[in-house]
Specification:
heterodimer, A: 292 residues, ABC transporter involved in vitamin B12 uptake, BtuC, two-stranded antiparallel sheet, B: 258 residues, Rossmann fold, three-stranded antiparallel beta sheet, 9 strands, 37% helix, 24% strand, globular
Chain lengths: 292, 258
Amino acid sequence: MDAFWIILSSSLIAVTCSLLGCYLVLRKMAMIGDAISHAVLPGIVIAYLISGSREALPMLIGAAIIGVFTTVLIELFYKKAKLQIDASIGITFTWLFAIGIILISLFAGQVDLDQDCVLYGEIAYVPLDLWITDAGVNMGPRTVWISASLLILILSFIIIGYKGLFLTTFNEEFAKALGIAVGFWHYSLMSAVSLTTVISFESVGAILVVAFLIVPASAAYLITHKLKEMLILSAIFSVLSSIGGYYLAAYINGSIAGAIASVAGILFLFCWLISMYRKRNNTSRLILNSTS
Amino acid sequence: MEVALETHNLTVSYNRRPVLWNIDFKIPVGQITGIIGPNGSGKTTLLKAIMGLVKPSSGYCKLFDQDLKQVRERISYVPQRESVDWDFPASVMDIVLMGRYKSSNLFKRINQSDRDIAVEALEKVNMLEFSNRQISQLSGGQQQRVFIARSLAQGADLYIMDEPFVGVDAATEEAILNLLTEMKNQGKTVIVVHHDLQTAKDYFDWIVLLNTRLVAVGPKDDIFREDLLQEAYGGKLNVLSKVGDLIKEKGFSVRERK
């Protein structure tokens, strides 16, 4: 049963992340998930200091707010200070992360927060954190419920906002010329990424979140030329990585998160080979056509 | 004269350096107007200011005597081809359909009449057979035609195009020119940013000569005078005209035959 819960929650999170990841990869902002997952540290500490508890909800809100703030700062450095996007990402998240560390060390006496625990959730513990109702009914792991609701939320965002996301991702200037609020779409997407990152890394750890955001989407990008196919393929790859990764970990008796990320990487390599093979075939066909 | 576009004291600067300085002109309805000037003379910036993509430091633009917001659906903008990533996972049809997007229908599904309009637009640029082709597999000229089809699908009255003739093949050039004439015959207004002085005289009815400041504006025969071109192109024209004289003397053809 534990295997089922772990695979299910990993898959739910993986699908959510990889759907958003498609848009991040296409917008050339793939590392934004990495930035958010580190930058939220001060948000978590501040939320803890204000609420005085380690309840998940205040921390989540604090983290999500700082997550969106991170994307605002990145956008500010990029657009106003005319810095490259990767430099803006690097400056923003290291700075916020550093503030978080200072806060932890300042309030070390009062704060019972473990940096490892904050940053690296452990997916193997998913089945331990059960949602038991007041009546005492066991509803299964909490993570499954949370990540399922998150997936529904993000999926509806992508379906309802499909045209808006498509247009603003492909050609922002044209969208602006049509009178479409590109800022709204940018920050809606960034809020979705922030919320997803924060919720996901609490359960599966920061590294796996970043892997889910980038790797399946990039693999799908290599082998398809349709956005809808890219979204569906990346979801399939992320589920395959979750299943494959779990059994790989069980077989070698190693880290589950590590194994899942590794399987995702292997899938990516596989897609890369396919795309290379196809390109070669296309070129040789072109040469044949031109000589015949 | 019915005015399609009017700019008044328009000044735009990047990092406090003016790119456009005090631009003041009017362009009539129903003409093909070329905005020409040397590299870095602010041609693209002028279009962006007209489309509200960059904020002017002072001055304003009026389209059909109104603010952009009020007439947005009558204006179509064709950005530079290089401004987007052509490896994006989309088909030709997907891109042309974007011409049917509006802020009011962004959450609605694309309907059959949108598709019909897109098909018609693709037909006009001779790209219908490519409608399912991935955009990464198009040549430069085909990409440009897709952009123009997207613009046609908007069904606008004023078309603003940024360098549509750059890097396109002869067939595309001819297709675009035919389209421009057809649009003009339908009473539409077209404004084109163009950098090639040699072809400008054949392509356009009206010329806006630009070099950060407005050098001259008017019907092309009034504008193609050595002193005005000299003023806009400065030393660059000097070298060019010398080369031109040399070529004339030696009897080379200036342009390659198609």
